[in-house]
From TrEMBL:
<dbReference type="Pfam" id="PF01323">
    <property type="entry name" value="DSBA"/>
</dbReference>
<dbReference type="InterPro" id="IPR051924">
    <property type="entry name" value="GST_Kappa/NadH"/>
</dbReference>
<dbReference type="InterPro" id="IPR001853">
    <property type="entry name" value="DSBA-like_thioredoxin_dom"/>
</dbReference>
<protein>
    <recommendedName>
        <fullName>Glutathione S-transferase kappa</fullName>
        <ecNumber>2.5.1.18</ecNumber>
    </recommendedName>
</protein>
<keyword id="KW-0808">Transferase</keyword>
<dbReference type="InterPro" id="IPR044088">
    <property type="entry name" value="GSTK"/>
</dbReference>
<comment type="similarity">
    <text>Belongs to the GST superfamily. Kappa family.</text>
</comment>
<dbReference type="GO" id="GO:0004602">
    <property type="term" value="F:glutathione peroxidase activity"/>
</dbReference>
<dbReference type="GO" id="GO:0005777">
    <property type="term" value="C:peroxisome"/>
</dbReference>
<dbReference type="InterPro" id="IPR014440">
    <property type="entry name" value="HCCAis_GSTk"/>
</dbReference>
<dbReference type="GO" id="GO:0004364">
    <property type="term" value="F:glutathione transferase activity"/>
</dbReference>
<dbReference type="GO" id="GO:0005739">
    <property type="term" value="C:mitochondrion"/>
</dbReference>
<dbReference type="InterPro" id="IPR036249">
    <property type="entry name" value="Thioredoxin-like_sf"/>
</dbReference>
<feature type="active site" description="Nucleophile">
    <location>
        <position position="15"/>
    </location>
</feature>
<dbReference type="GO" id="GO:0006749">
    <property type="term" value="P:glutathione metabolic process"/>
</dbReference>
<feature type="domain" description="DSBA-like thioredoxin">
    <location>
        <begin position="6"/>
        <end position="209"/>
    </location>
</feature>
Length: 222
């Protein structure tokens, strides 16, 4: 049996395209011979660190993205709805607490299962239910829906604001920048000791080609 290729997914729940990339790679994680590693990162710091500017600074990009995301919702079968105030949600409230919380979930678990469930609940809160993701009560609601126990959640609420989790999120974000990130999602495939880096949720076909796997579209089981 050939060894599994490591694929890292850098994502932020404030990024709708990250949600699309996240759901697609989750659908393929057991179909492809890959070892998927979630890398919760902070988009604001990726933008700043790379000298990029948010696409929302350009009115025509905003109008295009609005249409693009509506089309992609059906194509990817991801239940995305725009929040009433996207700028307030993404920039004023932001995702720093949520990404620290996810960092803590992953650190505590040492694996992917709970991180996957809590990530999905946070994506749903912001991009489907138009609900807060900044307050401890909101993070805890997402964790309850993801099936975490009361005692796990209590521990996570103590852990996520710790210097250790802040440093961990910072270093993951730095890893993304070191791979050349200027936005998210970022997929990094390790092939023959080389890192192949893909930006966006629209590069899976090429990525599959590079790792020698078959691309069956964003809904492979349909
Ligand atoms: N074409 C990509 C676009 C991804 C994208 O626009 N991501 C945003 C965050 S939601 C970003 O980081 N943009 C930076 C840029 O476009 O320079 C896709 O379909 O996934």
């Amino acid at each position: 049996m050939t060894s599994k290729k490591v694929v890292e997914l850098f994502y932020d729940v404030a990024s709708p395209y990250s949600w699309l990339g996240f759901e697609v790679i989750c659908r393929y994680k057991n179909m492809w011979n890959i070892d998927l590693k979630f890398r919760p990162a902070f988009l604001g710091a990726v933008m700043k660190g790379s000298g990029n500017k948010s696409p929302t600074m350009v009115q025509k990009k905003v109008l295009y993205m609005d249409k693009d995301l509506n089309r992609l919702r059906d194509y990817f079968n991801v239940p995305m709805q725009h929040p009433a105030d996207p700028i307030g949600v993404i920039f004023k409230k932001g995702s720093l607490s949520a990404m620290r919380f996810l960092t803590a979930v992953q650190e505590r678990e040492g694996g992917n299962t709970k991180a996957e469930q809590v990530s999905r609940e946070l994506f749903l809160r912001i991009w489907n239910e138009d609900k807060d993701i900044t307050e401890p009560g909101s993070l805890s609601e997402a964790a309850v829906k993801a099936g975490l126990s009361e005692s796990e959640i209590k521990e996570l609420l103590e852990l996520y604001t710790s210097p250790k989790m802040k440093d961990k999120l910072r270093s993951t974000t730095q890893d993304a920048l070191d791979y050349g990130a200027f936005g998210l999602p970022l997929l990094v495939c390790h092939v023959n000791s080389k890192a192949e880096v893909f930006f966006g949720s629209d590069r899976f076909e090429l990525m599959a080609h590079c790792i020698g796997e078959k691309w069956l579209g964003p809904q492979p089981e349909k």
